[in-house]
Amino acid sequence: MVERPNSPVCPPRRVLMGPGPSDVSPSVLAALGAPTVGHLDPYFLNLMDEVQQMLRELFQTENSLTLAVSGTGSAGMETCIVNLVEPGDRVLIGVNGVFGGRMADVATRYGAEVRTIERSFGEVFSTEKVAEAVREFQPKLVGLVHAETSTGACQPIPEISKAVHDQGAMLLIDCVTSLGGIPVEIDEWNVDAAYSGTQKCLSCPPGLAPVTFSKRAVEAMDARSSKVASWYLDMSMVRNYWSGQSRAYHHTAPINMNYALHTALREALDESLEARFERHHQNHLGLRAGLEALGLKYAVDESIRLPMLNAVLIPEGVDDKTVRGRLLNEFGIEIGGGLGPMAGKTWRIGLMGAASTTSNVLLFLAALENCLQSSGYQFTAGAGIAAANNYFSNVN
Ligand SMILES: *Cc1c(COP(=O)(O)O)cnc(C)c1O
């Protein structure tokens, strides 16, 4: 017989500086422990309204169909695709990392005729390349990843959006990692559908996926000739629960996760988006000063670097797993390894949401110096911390 666990859950305290989840602020964790109410309780219905209103502010949109899907970022991805795509529809997807690949997989599973355009990991698409593929393939939907967490590259959106719309297609973007860390301007950029997750720059535990759909996307859903292939993610039913007169039961919303998201959104908006983006930017530059002083190099060109996901090349002769293991076990710091072709070649250092702090930058650099020293890597002791401190003292 398997023995029943006899100790309570007691996770270690970590500093989460990987590709997500990121550190969760104490107020957000406390919200998870507030009393659960019913999913049709007037208190909860009002809270859902407020979540939607704050999500619109965060996405910088007036889209009425903006809500939090029950599930992680990938559920947001599936929601956007399954509601916009019918079997046989043409979908063009930009694959320059793991998440573009996932998007193509999801669209294929739901019966779309998928064509991909590809770039090496760490690179992004030019407007010309996307425009050419759209002209040739004439897709209904074009999917791109705004912040490719597997590589640390930021895909510029506004010009491409214009090219996509000039050919009559709709644009879907993955902003799982970008939302709350860099500007995501759904209306200004004319994006038709976007999804995100709670555990990256919103610093909430994983479990909900903010999504937003333009008027045109809603019209496309209303004009479908087939039923949405997923019952759970069917927006035509889910949206009646989130808004409108009926507030009809569809599935039980994860009540306490919505408390947590409400709290995280309020904190993000209280900080102001502008200040939040600036904080992510400055901590990235402080970290960069430190890493470069240690002789480390970024895996992504400066012009397209994400501030919340720093992908750096692991120096020659330094063992990836040894260093990440020591960071975790001796210093309580989690960073990410490389994914796909970058496995064993890069570290992915996250500065997301509540984890994007000056003290985390300094803590990480100190711990990294310790690990590099015992790997036999040559550098000037203290140089990383000195450079970061120098950067911070000049900006503050
Ligand atoms: C994390 C992430 C996802 C997937 O989100 P999950 O919460 O792990 O399901 C999708 N896209 C990007 C860009 C991500 O960073």
From TrEMBL:
Source species of the chain: Thalassoglobus neptunius
Q: Which GO terms describe its biological process?
A: glycine biosynthetic process, by transamination of glyoxylate
Can the keyword Transferase be found in this entry's annotation?
Answer: yes
Family membership, please give it.
Belongs to the class-V pyridoxal-phosphate-dependent aminotransferase family.
Q: What protein is this chain from?
A: Purine catabolism protein PucG
Determine if Glycosyltransferase is one of this entry's keywords.
no
Q: Which cofactor does the UniProt annotation name?
A: pyridoxal 5'-phosphate
List residues of the Aminotransferase class V domain.
36-338
Q: Where is the signal peptide?
A: none
Q: What is its EC number?
A: 2.-.-.-
Q: Which residues bind substrate?
A: 348
N6-(pyridoxal phosphate)lysine carried by residues:
200
* InterPro entries named among the record's database cross-references: Aminotrans_V_dom (IPR000192), Aminotrans_V_PyrdxlP_BS (IPR020578), PyrdxlP-dep_Trfase (IPR015424), PyrdxlP-dep_Trfase_major (IPR015421), PyrdxlP-dep_Trfase_small (IPR015422), SP_NH2Trfase/AEP_transaminase (IPR024169)
Q: What class of enzyme is it?
A: transferase
Listed Gene3D superfamilies: Aspartate Aminotransferase, domain 1, Type I PLP-dependent aspartate aminotransferase-like (Major domain)
Q: Which GO terms describe its molecular function?
A: alanine-glyoxylate transaminase activity; L-serine-pyruvate transaminase activity
Tell me any Pfam family this protein matches.
Answer: Aminotran_5
Q: Which UniProt keywords apply?
A: Aminotransferase, Pyridoxal phosphate, Transferase
